[in-house]
Structure formats: structure tokens, C-alpha cells
Amino acid sequence: MGSSRGVTTTLIFSPLATTFLVTIGLLLCQSNAQLTSTFYATTCPNVSGIVSTVIQQALQSDARIGASLIRLHFHDCFVQGCDGSILLTDNEQNAAPNVNSARGFGVVDNIKTAVENACPGVVSCADILALAAEASVSLSGGPSWSVPLGRRDSRSANQGGANASIPAPFDNLSNLTSKFSAVGLNTNDLVALSGTYSN
């Protein structure tokens, strides 16, 4: 629960939404490498704690930042897989479904700075987004889970792919179902994400 400008906001996770959030990382995170929750065990063992600390600080001034970070991860995964490409300057960020929707880039920058100070050149931005999504769920009262890690960062973004792949607010049910199906998600996942999306 957070408070901003006198308004109290609580993210409530239904079992369906919880199921979706736990599986999104597993279903959407396409990678050539084998992902494992112990990927940084020797090179950056406290990466999860660093991410959580920065998000806790951000939640003090922006109660919606948790939902925004989940949305960033979701939008990143729908285009080229969970590769951090949404963080590349201006390309995917300016795709129609991201305009006035994708936010939290400054918090991701703060997380990356903190992680780089502890473990220079080790943790991918794609993994930071995945860890930020999990920490946002957990810090908002939802479940916690071991995040599979080891993603590689993209070197290119795809605005056309973002325009075509990310579910847009004006998409009809048929288009939404098709876009979710294209990345291995079903109608239950669509309902769960839509239910949490308005936060």
C-alpha cells in the first residue's frame, strides 16, 4: 500500500493475476541461453536485494511505480522476447502502445546505477527488468518467486514490432487474444493482466 497526494493505492493480486505474474517471465522470456535463478550467484549475489531496495525507495514517492515496472517488463517481453530493448532510447518507447503508458525508466536507471556500483558490467538490463517486476509484485503484497536469470540484452529495438505486437488500449478482444496467443499466453493470462493493468 502506498500514498501519493492524499490518495491511497493498493495493488491487490487475485489468484488469477498471481498465476499470470509468476508465469509471464517463464512464458515470455525467450533466450538462447539456459535461464537459472542462480545465474549471478558468484558474480553479483545481492542483485535481487539491490533491485528491491531501489524500488522500495521509489515507492515512497510514487505509489504506482510497481505497476509501471511490471508494465515495462510486460511490454519489453511482447516485442522481441525479454531482452531489454524497451530501454533503448526512443525506438520502442515511442511505439503507440507505449506512449503515455510506459513509465518508470528513471527508476530502472537508478536500479542499473546501483547494480553497476556493486557489480560493474555483470547484470543485463533485461534481467534488471525481470527482477524489478518480481520485486514490484512482492513489495506490493503479492507473491515472491525465484526469477530465472541470464538474459542477454538486445542491441536493437523494434518500434514496428512494438506497434504490431504490444496489446494496445484500443485493440478488440480478437486482436488481444491473437497477440497473447502469439507469445504463448491464453485467455486466462489476458484476463489476469487486464485486471492488473489498470493500476
TrEMBL record:
Stretches assigned to the Plant heme peroxidase family profile domain: 34-199
Residues the record marks as site: Transition state stabilizer: R71
This protein's UniProt keywords: Calcium, Disulfide bond, Glycoprotein, Heme, Iron, Metal-binding, Oxidoreductase, Peroxidase
Cofactor note: Binds 2 calcium ions per subunit.
Catalytic reactions of this protein: 2 a phenolic donor + H2O2 = 2 a phenolic radical donor + 2 H2O
EC class of the enzyme, as a word: oxidoreductase
Cofactor(s) it depends on: Ca(2+); heme b
Lineage: superkingdom: Eukaryota
Binding positions (Ca(2+)): D76, V79, G81, D83, S85, E92
GO biological process: response to oxidative stress
Cystines in this chain: C44-C119, C77-C82
Enzyme Commission (EC) number: 1.11.1.7
InterPro entries given in the database record: Haem_peroxidase, Haem_peroxidase_sf, Peroxidase_pln, Peroxidases_AS
Amino acids binding substrate: P167
Enzyme active site: H75 (proton acceptor)
Record's keyword annotation contains NADP: no
GO MF, any single term: metal ion binding
Family: Belongs to the peroxidase family.
Function: Removal of H(2)O(2), oxidation of toxic reductants, biosynthesis and degradation of lignin, suberization, auxin catabolism, response to environmental stresses such as wounding, pathogen attack and oxidative stress. These functions might be dependent on each isozyme/isoform in each plant tissue.
Protein name per the record: peroxidase
Organism: Linum tenue
